[in-house]
Write the structure tokens for this entry.
Amino acid sequence: MTTYGLLLFDHAEELDFVGPREVFHVSEQLRGDSGSVALIAEYPGLVHCAKGLQVLADHTFGDHPPLDVLVVPGGWGARHVQVHKPHVTDWIAKIASRVDWVHGIRTGTFLLHTAGPARGRRVVTDAAFEDELEAHGDVTVMRDEPYAVDGNLLTSRGLSAALDSALWLVSRLHGIDHAHDVCSAMDYKPRVPSLGGGDLARPNH
Amino acid sequence: MTTYGLLLFDHAEELDFVGPREVFHVSEQLRGDSGSVALIAEYPGLVHCAKGLQVLADHTFGDHPPLDVLVVPGGWGARHVQVHKPHVTDWIAKIASRVDWVHGIRTGTFLLHTAGPARGRRVVTDAAFEDELEAHGDVTVMRDEPYAVDGNLLTSRGLSAALDSALWLVSRLHGIDHAHDVCSAMDYKPRVPSLGGGDLARPNH
């Protein structure tokens, strides 16, 4: 069983967590391990996302299960609010040190930079914020790549890329045949990535 | 201003409404008309989606604004529950008769068939349920097409297709240049459709 934990916070971008969540959920369903994809918020209560979607998280920082994968979405709230909350960045740093994989989605990379896991790493982020992230220093921002893998840190750049990077991770964790089954179940044709994991058909990491 | 209303119900597929919602929301933001994309549920309270996401709708059947576009997502709840609720199918039929466009996502086509708008039309649905929909009769199920347009009824087949069909609709409503702006803002590269609206670059309906 693989337990995925997706951080949720006010003004998180909806598709940054709903897209990868779908990939991981379908993967666990196909593997007979349904129920190990958790949305985790700092506190209980409704979360108001970047474009107004109101979502209830499954767990809080205080009651979530042990995780194998930590997923950090982006959005206005990531860059402007969560990066300034030590309770959140400390939690990210602590969990990141325990999981097998850390997966940053778009501007979620800013949170992973502040918290530590993206320091000194090669990463991608939302195309509109590449200069801003690079200005923070101690990070190599890859441009024009859908996603990047550096050690156990996987970051993705855009909307489609977040699905593709999640699929790359599933193929890495559970094999290429399984990843193709997930694509079939979702009726989704992944794009050929050009960085990090290589083609979905030939993972080279 | 274009007002989009997306039906929400228990066991609706998450990406069936979150994906198109993103397209329409970005479109309205770029056009300076933010706030006219509404999630509408039969009753107040949390909705439990097909893969466990807990979402609060913006409106109920009793208090939503007048709509220009009605969007009906799919999911287990569409095929097994909502089709048997006259209060829901009557609402769909009533709203569909008033809007400019009706947009069915994946198995949302089943609901539109029961409610009336898909009767006698050419539609697509989730690949796994094409035979089942065809068995209901009085509908032409197009196979292996990402989406279909018949009159003012737009239906889409899969996860990527739901984004592409929503983008087709935005290009139809607000022009091809605007649709490309939406794609850029989302960092999403639409797939070339093969049915209905033709290529996104050359809408022919």
